Amino acid sequence: MCCECLDPGCGGGRDDGLAPSIWDSAVYSTSAFSRLEKLGIRHPKPSPFVGNLMFFRQGFWESQLELRERYGRLCGYYLGRRMYVVISEPDMIKQVLVENFSNFSNRMASGLEPKMVADSLNEMTPLISQACEVLVAHLKRYAASRDAFDIQRCYCCYTTDVVASVAFGTQVDSRNAPEDPFVQHCQRAFAFCFPRPLLALILSFPSIMVPLARILPNKKRDELNGFFNTLIRNAIALRDQQAAEERRRDFLQMVLDAQHSMSSVGVEGFDMVTEALSSSGCTEDPPQRCRPMSTSKPLTVDEIVGQAFLFLVAGHEIITNTLSFITYLLAIHPDCQERLLKEVDLFMEKHPAPEYCNLQESLPYLDMVIAETLRMYPPAFRFTREAAQDCEVLGQRIPAGTVLEIAVGALHHDPEHWPNPETFDPERFTAEARRQQRPFTYLPFGAGPRSCLGVRLGLLVVKLTLLQVLHKFHFEASPETQVPLQLESKSALGPQNGVYIKIVSR
Ligand code: HEM
């Protein structure tokens, strides 16, 4: 055999008299499958054409854990002919996400400015609280009925309201007014994002945060784009007529202000995650970790629409699922919930109208509960980097073009870093325990210059929501509560059948 060419059109080296087309397809169906072995990387045995597709039939979450158990912390698989190298080894992850970032920097362009996100969060707090009041009103009805219900559906509507308000500058009540054009278009956008398993597999795999534009069919995409574009253009026109103090202080306004700002700092200028998770209090001006990047160009209206879209897609599902997971875990761990309720009550006594700064400082147990939930159930449980050039990472050869998958689920459930990984234990995240943690064993928001841009906003929404909900109610498990929770992992990790619980007024 002389030919290792991956080009399906190349039939070089055949000498057994097989008809060219049969030979070609035989070569094509398996020719790509020697690459992992050549790199010395263990992997499940691939099948012709589909590679290891069948390995993932139980869901990407379960398969990721199984991959680590069976093939180790550096392993691989093929989807179709495409090769993936999966890493859940902390030092190697650090090399890829931080130390060798320049070789693994493939990122979608983003005009989001972290500094401005941070500066504007305080102003967004009342908008989120406003949407939360609507959620609390809906929950009151369920409390009165005493019936079990799917709280994930409530969170889903609520998160749509938050996105509408914060990103698109428009107020909706998705639960009561599902016929609202914004709600309808959002639902269609989400349905398009993750439609049928196979499509989701082919189109959205491996990146969870795939830009909407790439995954929608053209006609529908244009229609959706048209709707959101008009919405934003109208909002911009309205704001142009308003005096500065009349304008809503939301994400849209922040991006519009950025258009006029002369000195913005590039995304790479901050280590958002370390900073956001350090609970270091409210910083007027977050510390810069690296040198400031060149001044950004003002955004066009299309780019602003793109930013709002990104927000919609990136934030909506993940926040809904995070809130659902926390609620489930609190309902089945009443002791933890009891302790949290005390903290919430004390806090609300001191700060009846919570502000961003207060939230950073005085809710240590809530922080622990959120952190442990994101360890057990990290919604973005896998993300990828692509090698721009051939390189070596801690002795492992990585050819240019290789897709590296960071296996956050496997990392967070590795008993070497997290003893009894299936046990919910917020004590893993006391300030002291955090100091002891081995670096790069906990990555719910990714790490390095390409990490989550919405980490602060995401945590703000989650905290503010739980504060306001737990101030009024507590969660109770009921016979309808599925324990253990069945998970779905086609795109983000989420509950498969919703989260059925009871809610009790306090
Ligand atoms: C609890 C909530 C959230 C979690 C757990 C989360 C998690 C993540 C993770 C793991 C990544 C991949 C990071 C990496 O590749 O290193 C990511 C990327 C991203 N997230 Fe989030 N996210 C959350 C909320 C949000 C929100 C609310 C927004 C919108 C403002 C957002 C915007 C983004 C964007 C734009 C990226 C892509 C960054 C890039 O490719 O450069 N996220 N997120």
TrEMBL record:
The keyword Membrane applies. Catalyzes the conversion of prostaglandin H2 (PGH2) to thromboxane A2 (TXA2), a potent inducer of blood vessel constriction and platelet aggregation. Also cleaves PGH2 to 12-hydroxy-heptadecatrienoicacid (12-HHT) and malondialdehyde, which is known to act as a mediator of DNA damage. 12-HHT and malondialdehyde are formed stoichiometrically in the same amounts as TXA2. Additionally, displays dehydratase activity, toward (15S)-hydroperoxy-(5Z,8Z,11Z,13E)-eicosatetraenoate (15(S)-HPETE) producing 15-KETE and 15-HETE. Its main location: endoplasmic reticulum. The lineage of its organism: Eukaryota, Metazoa, Chordata, Craniata, Vertebrata. Keywords: Endoplasmic reticulum, Fatty acid biosynthesis, Fatty acid metabolism, Heme, Iron, Isomerase, Lipid biosynthesis, Lipid metabolism, Lyase, Membrane, Metal-binding, Monooxygenase, Oxidoreductase, Prostaglandin biosynthesis, Prostaglandin metabolism, Transmembrane, Transmembrane helix. This is Thromboxane-A synthase. It is a multi-pass membrane protein. It comes from Apodemus speciosus (Large Japanese field mouse). InterPro entries: Cyt_P450 (IPR001128), Cyt_P450_CS (IPR017972), Cyt_P450_E_grp-I (IPR002401), Cyt_P450_sf (IPR036396), Cytochrome_P450_3A (IPR050705). Its EC number is 4.2.1.152, 5.3.99.5. It catalyses: prostaglandin H2 = (12S)-hydroxy-(5Z,8E,10E)-heptadecatrienoate + malonaldehyde; prostaglandin H2 = thromboxane A2; (15S)-hydroperoxy-(5Z,8Z,11Z,13E)-eicosatetraenoate + AH2 = (15S)-hydroxy-(5Z,8Z,11Z,13E)-eicosatetraenoate + A + H2O; (15S)-hydroperoxy-(5Z,8Z,11Z,13E)-eicosatetraenoate = 15-oxo-(5Z,8Z,11Z,13E)-eicosatetraenoate + H2O.
